[in-house]
Amino acid sequence: MVTQYGIKYAVNLITAHFGDLVAKVCECLLRKGPLTLQAIVRSTELTSSQVKNSLLVLIQHNCVQAFILDQTGEHGDGAKQSTQYIALFDNIIQRWRFPKFLTMVSKKLDKQCAELLEGLLQHGRLTLKQMFDRAKSGQNGGDDVVQEAFVKLLNAHFIERCPASEPVLTNPTKEEEAARKRAAKSGKILEVQETLEQRVVEAAMPTEALRFLFATETEPTADGGKDKSNSSSVTPGEKRKHDALESEAECGATDEQVVLWRANFDEFIRCLRHKACIENVRARFDDGAVIVFGAMLEATRSAEKKVKTENSVPLSLSSIYEEVIKSEEGRNITFDRVRASLVQLSCPPFVKAANESYSVDFKKIIELAQNEEVESIVLKRYGRDAYRMFRLLSNSGHLLETDKVADATFVEKKETPIILYKLWKDDYLQLEKLQIGVKQIPFQLWKVNKNTLKVHVLDEMFHAAFNLSQRVAFELEQEKELSNVLQDKRVNRLRKRLLLESSQMKLDDAIMLFHDF
């Protein structure tokens, strides 16, 4: 869900990177949803040429996706098609995380890969030829070096083919919609409604195998032809799948030099999510449990089809041990120690066991981290008594009367309603009033609604991130004006700005916890 301050934060990022004109078009799409070119021109009061150029910039940098909405007539009298544009909020806020992505690639791969990725992040989309030309101009190595770095990034799924330029999105028919509602009502499926943005992104995305396909021409074969079956992302076990896709790849682009590539934000967020889960485990368990947990993540990573996976695929104890001993630190761990670590990880249930198989419960880990983050906010802002009350209500999961809250938290009964009202006024608690008995005695019942609270806390975080980005921009302007001032004053200004930027990074980690994970 995109909150109001989330929109302000996203628009501020676009303004800083591309200027006011492009930001105006982006804000129009964020606030009003998908629009045609003519509708954007009317809403922004810009010229058609200005809107077109702004959209081209936003599409180039993966911040907007064009799509065709196929609207079939009510009486089956043909279809009405119109090209619309939708702002991709998730991709926009990823722009702040580019330094994190580059650091990750530098550590996991090498400097050459990081430099190649930096070009993609700066320009949004590039062909392989453009990557070669950029590397030559920067003297970062020849074609072989660039292609080797490219293949490493592709094998790690840090880059991907660009989506379709204008995918066709078809609205479900009345019969399909009615069937879906009947199934959901009867309890046959528990479906989370997809947003339009998610539907557009899914429709534009290439098939999973084609998404990371890079067919390279190798040395001539015995019959004088060239073997095109070599692919950086297709293993021998996937040979038949590759052969089936070869014609599809050639139809889309006969030359790999003209295929557009971009950074794969999903993979970076998945890695950051895994890192956050490992840190959460590290805070509660010993090093052995952390190594076992990390091995489970590594073994099941390729099976994750979406970022917000709730549970990993199940693994046997033998498979987990096999993955553990692949690392240097894991070779000191015995089979029995792995079993003991899995028992540790099952309480709290970070790992679920069933039929002698074990799977990572991502949903539980993230929910626990979110609860702790909110509790820390309440503690810092309202004090320890408020923290104990909030924690009680959060863990209970149901309505509690004021006196029961006071008794359970050992807070004075006169102070309890005052503190609870503060939390309710700031949207951290839900209040329900009841009148009981002949005398209609009023009772106040309190509860934590975690779904609405999550949205509220996320909006507060976006608000803080927006204010911080504004302050950092101000400090940068001040540094430029004080270029001729004494060295001590410039150093103090620099320290202040670095502290603000560090706070931004930490705040962004919290935003990812509630929005991306």
Describe the structure.
This protein is mainly α and 517 residues long. Among the domains are: 2-87, Orthogonal Bundle (Arc Repressor Mutant, subunit A); 264-359, Arc Repressor Mutant, subunit A; 363-447, Orthogonal Bundle (Arc Repressor Mutant, subunit A), CATH 1.10.10.10; 467-514. The chain is 59% helix and 11% strand. It contains 23 helices and 12 strands. The chain has helices at residues 4-18, 20-32, 37-44, 48-60, 89-93, 98-108, 111-123, 128-137, 143-155, 174-185, 196-204, 208-211, 239-252, 265-282, 287-300, 317-324, 335-345, 362-382, 384-396, 402-409, 416-425, 450-481, 487-515, and strands at 64-72, 79-87, 126-127, 159-161, 168-170, 260-263, 315-316, 351-354, 357-360, 400-401, 430-436, 441-447. A 3-stranded mixed sheet has the order 2-1-5. The protein has a 3-stranded antiparallel sheet with strand order 3-6-4. Strands 7-9-8 form a 3-stranded antiparallel sheet. Strand 8 (351-354) and strand 9 (357-360) form a beta hairpin. Helix 19 (384-396) crosses helix 20. Mean pLDDT is 85; it is low at 186-192, 217-231, 233-242 and 244-254.
Strand content: 5-15%
Number of helices: 23
Tell me the radius of gyration.
27 Å
Instruction: Give the biggest sheet.
Output: 3 strands, mixed
Give the termini separation.
Answer: 13 Å
Please bin the fraction of helical residues. 55-70%
Q: Give the overall form.
A: globular
CATH fold-level assignment of the domain at 264-359: Arc Repressor Mutant, subunit A
Count of distinct strands: 12
Uncertain spans, ≥5 residues at pLDDT below 50? 186-192, 217-231, 233-242, 244-254
CATH superfamily of the domain at 264-359: Winged helix-like DNA-binding domain superfamily/Winged helix DNA-binding domain
The CATH class of the domain at 264-359 is identified as Mainly Alpha
Whole-number mean pLDDT: 85
Identify the CATH architecture of the domain at 264-359: Orthogonal Bundle
- Judged by helices, strands and strand pairing, the structural class is mainly alpha
Q: Trace the largest sheet across and list its strands.
A: 2-1-5
